[in-house]
Amino acid sequence: MGASASKIKFRESLTSLISRDVSPEDAEFWDELWKIPSSADEVFELLTPDNARRLRDERFDNLATLFTQATAQLCQIVETPYTIYFDQALNCVRVLTRVLPFLLEKGDLGDGDLNV
């Protein structure tokens, strides 16, 4: 996948997270998200502050699932530390690094706190 193709695919995945409910059981979506080669610059460019806030405010269940899926992916990579998975681990960490500040800026999330 070329740089521009991966950027487009990552943007499409983010749009899906913001615009519709994505099931935690949608393994194809989540696996594909972590496999899209993305640099830190791309993650921060495409996952804008406005998009991160919209995800938090309008699709909190997707945000909770994003955290759960990223954490599960990282745990799986720790259990099977093959170099072919290292880019996926980087993608997980980059996405978490980008959205975590926007989750924390909200403060008390009420019932949402139980999901993250």
TrEMBL record:
This is Uncharacterized protein. One of its GO terms (cellular component) is Golgi trans cisterna. It comes from Skeletonema marinoi.
